[in-house]
Amino acid sequence: HSCCHRRWMIYTGVDSKFQSSRTARSEEDRDTLWDAWGSWSECSRTCGGGASYSLRRCLSSKTCEGQNIKYRTCSNVDCPPDAGDFRAQQCSAHADVRYQGQYHEWLPVYNDPDNPCALKCKAKGLGLVVELAPKVLDGTRCYTESLDMCISGVCQIVGCDHDLGSTAKEDNCGVCSGDGSSCRLVRGHYKSQHASGKRHSGGRPL
């Protein structure tokens, strides 16, 4: 009996290896149905955080599994103060287009909870709010107080490390993925040298 039991164990081991090699080969075959990824596109913005994409072509006569496009962030440097707001620039670009027979100065509508990646603008001096484009340009912030950005009309999560899909956040000290140990909160009062009698409270780094 011990002989036969050992044989059975050996057989299942071979079968398991055979199965795993088949799985690996099928995954390899799936990948070879795609052409190589192309070079990255020019960044959608020159500053303030934008998006770049890379494409690949399906070589199969049937549908390939997976995506034919991938994105990454780029130009993650602050814009100069006079650069203006990116969403506001897109609204202003419609100033020379008639809407209901009239020209308007368009101002941006921020933080739309239903569709943050649509270009909604309001006519200055009026209560008129219009969706001037179904999608804002890639790299537009979904919300004013967030790094999340719109790509192809969809709000994508962006961490403080500027990586797409990252959940990295700043700690209380403003350090990305920090543990809050690089600063401490100092509570108290001190007299300002420039404003007599005024009291302030604040924090300081370690």
UniProtKB/TrEMBL annotation:
<dbReference type="InterPro" id="IPR013273">
    <property type="entry name" value="ADAMTS/ADAMTS-like"/>
</dbReference>
<dbReference type="GO" id="GO:0031012">
    <property type="term" value="C:extracellular matrix"/>
</dbReference>
<keyword id="KW-0964">Secreted</keyword>
<dbReference type="InterPro" id="IPR036383">
    <property type="entry name" value="TSP1_rpt_sf"/>
</dbReference>
<feature type="disulfide bond">
    <location>
        <begin position="43"/>
        <end position="74"/>
    </location>
</feature>
<dbReference type="GO" id="GO:0030198">
    <property type="term" value="P:extracellular matrix organization"/>
</dbReference>
<feature type="disulfide bond">
    <location>
        <begin position="47"/>
        <end position="79"/>
    </location>
</feature>
<feature type="domain" description="ADAMTS/ADAMTS-like cysteine-rich">
    <location>
        <begin position="111"/>
        <end position="183"/>
    </location>
</feature>
<dbReference type="Pfam" id="PF00090">
    <property type="entry name" value="TSP_1"/>
</dbReference>
<dbReference type="GO" id="GO:0005576">
    <property type="term" value="C:extracellular region"/>
</dbReference>
<dbReference type="InterPro" id="IPR045371">
    <property type="entry name" value="ADAMTS_CR_3"/>
</dbReference>
<dbReference type="Pfam" id="PF19236">
    <property type="entry name" value="ADAMTS_CR_3"/>
</dbReference>
<dbReference type="InterPro" id="IPR000884">
    <property type="entry name" value="TSP1_rpt"/>
</dbReference>
<dbReference type="InterPro" id="IPR050439">
    <property type="entry name" value="ADAMTS_ADAMTS-like"/>
</dbReference>
<feature type="disulfide bond">
    <location>
        <begin position="58"/>
        <end position="64"/>
    </location>
</feature>
<protein>
    <recommendedName>
        <fullName>ADAMTS/ADAMTS-like cysteine-rich domain-containing protein</fullName>
    </recommendedName>
</protein>
<keyword id="KW-1015">Disulfide bond</keyword>
